[in-house]
């Protein structure tokens, strides 16, 4: 699908800093500290996925960047504009897609999107709004009231509203929660198209598959602290574990003593041996695979097949956010 969202008349070079977060903290009345001196730079034209369990501080951080919540300390700049001292300029660059569409049930799709553009003081541009609605497969629904739309269509309207004023940054808070798999993949493509147009995407999601599919970089937040920020592929290589599974020609009752140094796991039916190793070691020297295969031959253990599996992003995420 090709789109023409045109986030800005002038697009700066991709990969340059778009959002700078320096030492941002938030303590609510009552003493609860939701964020603890978070610092982060998000580059122009990237898809950044912010992951964390419920209550980790994701929504608080996004709300502070968007100017909806005041930080207790630290600063945020959007394309060089301080989001407190130069609030209007910073906020104009941001589009926010919340989880729910509320308060506009009797409005039509067209009126809702046009009104949203007007809130930012943008001049009327029906041609641009039409392009948005067509790209989001909403043009045929433009005269429908929001209350008559399906959940998936309402989610598209939220994106259309957020794009109506031509922002350069788009925040997506659980964008595909509750939608079917087919629509989810369509929306992933919409997000990629936006990124290709130069829009910076910040995504929060509980679908680890979504981050694994789309994100360029991933940040993990836990108890208000940013515990990790890394390019997705580098994260998979560094923190992922690999498993080598050997299907045996004859079942074993137990792992031979000679193989104890390799810490192998025997499957319940005795038909397979599982060897776990650091994925950063690769399949050659350092992984221990060559030595293991030699030890198997010496021990008289024969196998008919073997295959490897790398840890998924979900497994890595769980290991990062679990309590010590």
UniProtKB/TrEMBL annotation:
One of its GO terms (molecular function) is ATP hydrolysis activity. Residues 19-248 form the ABC transporter domain. InterPro entries: AAA+_ATPase, ABC_transporter-like_ATP-bd, ABC_transporter-like_CS, ABC_transporter_ATP-binding, P-loop_NTPase. SUPFAM superfamilies: P-loop containing nucleoside triphosphate hydrolases (SSF52540). The keyword ATP-binding applies. It comes from the Bacteria. It holds the Pfam family ABC_tran. Keywords: ATP-binding, Nucleotide-binding, Transport. This is ABC transporter ATP-binding protein. It comes from Bisbaumannia pacifica.
